[in-house]
Each structure stands twice: as C-alpha cells, then as structure tokens.
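retry 2 of 3: previous attempt timed out while embedding magnesium ion. Reduced batch size to 1 and resubmitted. Inputs unchanged:
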Amino acid sequence: MSESSPAKTMHFIREIIAEDRRSGKYDGKVVTRFPPEPNGYLHIGHAKAICLDFGMAMENGATCHLRMDDTNPVKEDIEYTQAIQEDVRWLGFDWGEHFFYASDYFDTMYELACTLIRDGNAYVCALTAEQWKEYRGTPTEPGRESPCRNRPPEESLALFERMRKGEIPDGELVLRAKIDMASPNLHMRDPVLYRILHAAHPHTGDKWCIYPMYDFAHPIEDAIEQVTHSLCTLEFEVHRPLYDWVIAACKIFPSRQIEFARLSLTYTVMSKRKLLELVQGRYVNGWDDPRMPTLSGMRRRGIPPAAIREFCERIGVTKYDSLTDVALLEHCVRDELNHSAQRVMAVLEPLRLVIENPEDLPAAVFGPVNPENPEAGEREIPFEAELFIERGDFEEVPPPKYFRLSPGASVRLRYAGFFTCTRFDKEADGRVSAVYGRFTPMTEKVKVKATIHWVPATAAKPVEVRLYDRLFSVPEPDGDKEVDFKTYLNPDSLKTVTAMAESSLLEALPGDVFQFERLGYFAADPDSMPGAPVFNRTVTLKDSWKVS
Ligand code: ATP
Ligand code: MG
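retry 2 succeeded.
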C-alpha cells in the first residue's frame, strides 16, 4: 500500500477484540468469518465486511473462514460460489482450509431443532400466512399466542419429521421458537425456525425439503465453526436477542455478534437485488461490467485491490449509517495507480498537427516510464513532422484563460519541444481538420503556459477506448422509495472511441493499467485481442476528493 497509508486507527471492534484477548475470553482465541449468501456477485460493500473480517483475523494471528451462507436454495447458484472465491482472493485474502457451506450443517441444525422441540422451546405451527400477520401484533401491540403453541412436544416432533420427509406441502406448517409473543422486539415473537420448501438445493440436492431460517441457522453455523466474533451489519442489531436465545436454548458455542454500519456510496446502488436487476435488464453488460460496483466490475475497470483495501481502512468502522463520497474511492484508486501505472501518451480525439520546419526535428524523444519510480527507466517515443494532438487542445477563438493552442499561440509538446501555431485548416462544416506551425527545440527558451500531449502520426497505433463515467447521474439513486432507481441511470456512462496511442500499448495484456498522460488511468480489458487491445477508463486524473 502507498506511503500515505494512515496508521491503522482504533475502532470499537478492534477494541472489543483486544479486550477479549486481554481478559482471556475464548481462551484468547479469535476466529472470524465472512458469510456471503451465494445469490449474487460481491460488491464494494462486501469488501468493507471482508476487509474487516479478514483484517481482524490477520491482525490477531487468527483465521477467518469463508462460508457460503446457502440456507435459501431458491436464489443460489454455483456460478456465484465460484465468483465469490475468486473475488475474495483477488482482494488479497486467504481462508486457507477454512471454506465452508452452511448447508453442510443442515443435519446438525435439524438435530438441534428436535432438541428445542423436546425441551419445550419450539413447536410446529399451522397458522396460515394471513393468520400469522394477524397473530403477530404490531410494534406497539403485543401479539397473540398461536393455538398450536401448547401442542405436546411428541406431536410437534412427529409433525416436524413429516415435514422433513416431504409429506407436507410448502407453507402448510412451520417450526417456531417458543419465546414471547408480548416481546417489544417482533423478532422474539415466536419466530419461524424452519419452513417447508420443496426445492432442490445447489449443494445438497434433493436431500432436504425443509430449510432453516437465517436467524436460527446463523448462530449454529458460527457455533460449529467456533467463531468468536461474528461481525455483521447494523440491520442485524435487532436480531441479536434471537441470536443469543438460540445459543442459550441450543447450548452451543457462544459466538458474539457485533454489528457495524454498512457501506453506502454516492452515485451507486449496492443491493444485490438491484444489481441483479441491472444485469438481467441488460442495463449493463453483466456482473463484471466496469460500471458495476461489484468487485469483478472493479477488477475489469482496472481498480487495484490495494486501493480498495486502503479505501476500506480509511472509511473506518462505526455504528452509524452514513453515505460515503465515491470521490474518496476514486482518490484511493489514483493514489495507488500513480505509483504503479506506466505512463504512455494517447490521443482520444485526434486532430492533425503539421510541423512546417521539418529540418529541425529530433528523430525520437524520451519520457519516463513512471516518474514516481525512476528505476523503471525511460521510454522512446518516435517524433514526426506530423502528429496527432487532442482536438480539445486547439481553439480557433480561445476563451479567456485558455492557454493551449490557438492561432499565434505556443505550447510545449511534452518531452519534445515547443510548437507555435501559424494557421489551421477547416472543413466545409466548420470543423478544424489540421493545425500548422513551427517547432522549436527544447534547448531554446519559449515562454508557454501549457504542455500538451501528442502522438506521432504514422508510428502511433489505433486502440479502442471505452470511456466510462458514473453509472448514475444523481448522488443517491435509490434515496427515494417512490422513484425507480433506474430512472437515474446516466445515459452517458459509456462512450467508445478509437484513440491513437504509443505503439507499445499494442502489447498490453488484460489487466495491465496505464496512465494516459493528462487523461487518466486506463486498463486493458479481457476483450483485448493480441495486437488489438481494448482499454477501459479506470478513472480520470482530476481528483474531486477534498482532504478535510
Ligand atoms: P445485499 O444487501 O447487497 O443484498 P446482503 O447483506 O444480503 O447484501 P450477504 O451475502 O448476506 O449480502 O452479505 C455477506 C456479508 O456482507 C454480511 O455479513 C453483510 O452484513 C455484509 N455486507 C453486505 N452488504 C454490505 C455493505 N454495504 N457494507 C458492509 N457490509 C456489507
Ligand atoms: Mg443477505
């Protein structure tokens, strides 16, 4: 990570773990886990959780488990399971031997459910979905007890067994915990522990037709793996009493659930449901579209994993939901790429520049491969009497404070010398087609206020460049529940151009990231063919992050 990395700051989870180690709780051991549901690709919000779960383990010389929380068979898929592993590894974390499926614990969960029934802590309930709502009560009124609540344990056990055997249709019976229908916490009002779902599971196949609910399954998963600190996002805070109830009633390993604020980013939607909608509706080109906030999209865009880790460290860990400016992420990306990316010149919108004194020209000029890293050496760039410059670097009638080219004006041509514009050509439609002028070598002094980039007209090669912008045009695309977030899709989030670039770019391999001087960072896309690279704009050079 870059030298500007702040020292790791203290936060409440670091403090809790440090205190537990000091006091010898869990015999001083630390085990964490990252438990994604394999129903979508991981996004930058998950990266926050991953950096925290794996980070806390690594800092404490401990292990972090990667667990597929696959208790819901319907939305889950093997494709996601594989992508999740690839993304966590890419982010820089290693679970070693500790890869698990929650569904591998279904037998234990079933056994524990039977124990709860025997102990009078759970019962099979026949209320319909309609009745269920009615009996549940509201936050201000207590609920009512189900007529099934005092069913003898043997009867519940027999029914539960029939549920398991597939003798009961979906939705007809559920297993409920017997807790407190008058609890102010709705999650404690005899919550459902198991439901019937006649659906094949990607991992366990047809073995089960009853599936445990998250609140019952999660503490058991954590207990089986002896997770000490079970970190999750704030919305689970109200579920914690139930998490603790399951531990006490099942007499299992007492993991501690600790909640932290989820990451929300400006100009971004983060929920997997919405991201799936963008993919299925073809608003983007797949989960790994470079505009997606998914880790696979960010990888394809050229964002280095170190920048994401740095970002996650900088945003910190709190108990309060807030909105993080995406400019901070972009800042971390620039910071990282500034150190690692090779420099090249490329012109996105070429305009011909003709030097009218070709006798004074150097055959080639030299530029640093990376000014941040002198050891990387220099590159040679052929120089010619005809160049391409950026169309925007010439103005027929320069506006105030415009210091680049215009008739009579001089600029520095990066690494080469000076150029003074004497005249230009125009098409019938008024479009400028070429600018002409005189070249002055670097050894002479010409006063200029701007440096522009260029490429040699014949030695430069065409490359496809995909100019990505933010996917949404407003800071909070899902801020208004009344408006479909897709209304705010940015129609200009992708523009494709053919740029002219230094010929070395033709050798770029997918994943290589370059700084196109003055323009930004660009990553070679997997769509690249040998000799025909395609580049994604990772980020522009202009940093809008305000250091506070
Ligand atoms: P989504 O809300 O996007 O559908 P999820 O919470 O359903 O995500 P899971 O696969 O269940 O996704 O998440 C795995 C872990 O990642 C959980 O511990 C969850 O709390 C955490 N996580 C998910 N989204 C965020 C986020 N935006 N910020 C921080 N952690 C998150
Ligand atoms: Mg979830």
